[in-house]
Here is the input.
Amino acid sequence: MRVYFSGVAFTFFLLLLTGVAAADAAQVTEPDLNAILSKMEQVQLENRAHLIPYTVTRRYELSGRAADNSAAVVADVNFDPPNQKTYDIKYSDGGRAEKVVQKILDREAEYARDVKKISFSRDDYTFSYLGQGLIDGKSYLLLGLTPKRQDKDLLKGRIYVDPSSYQIRRFEGEPAKSPSWWLKDVQLVTDYAQVGPMWLQTSSKGSAEVRWFGTHVMTARDIGYRSEVARLQPPAPAVKKTVRRPTTAVGAGILR
Here is the structure.
């Protein structure tokens, strides 16, 4: 059986399809970026208000191009509100990895004293809506991140924002400016999660091409956490306690 469309019927059919497509397009509208950013910035302020004294035990692993170019460092990182961080290196394979970790922890203590350096806000960044991104099967708002100036304390890349809580779940990208002449093609991934009553960084991974030494990778992962509400101390210099064990020196790591 053959079905024939008259000119009028065919025109009506095309208009119908056009109307359906327009309706579908109207339903797929981008969310209000400014509203997302306002809620995200407010949540970051609230996160600081929820900070309590805590100690995180963190394991760092540095690996290089050669099979034997690897080392591990374990450190306790202590936080006393509102802005004091100290650390104790509990275990180290020694060598350059330990020096790299000390620099990372010194920088982390510096950031704790100036929270603007670790905030994602419109003061320092231009944001763009990139769509949806998945982490472990869950959908997040994916926002592009462009620094407003070339600064080693700023980042460029993208962040994953929880659409229900507006917490930042992950950052992927690179520094706005390389932290060292020795490093090229620096790539960073940082994850955040709920730890007790707080939203904290829980793991990170950085890779870089080290001049003359090839690609090196530094990973950091929290392996223990305890809260010590009674442990309120006056500000003091960062404590460096080192346990050294001889090992082959490896190339420089990622500084952030």
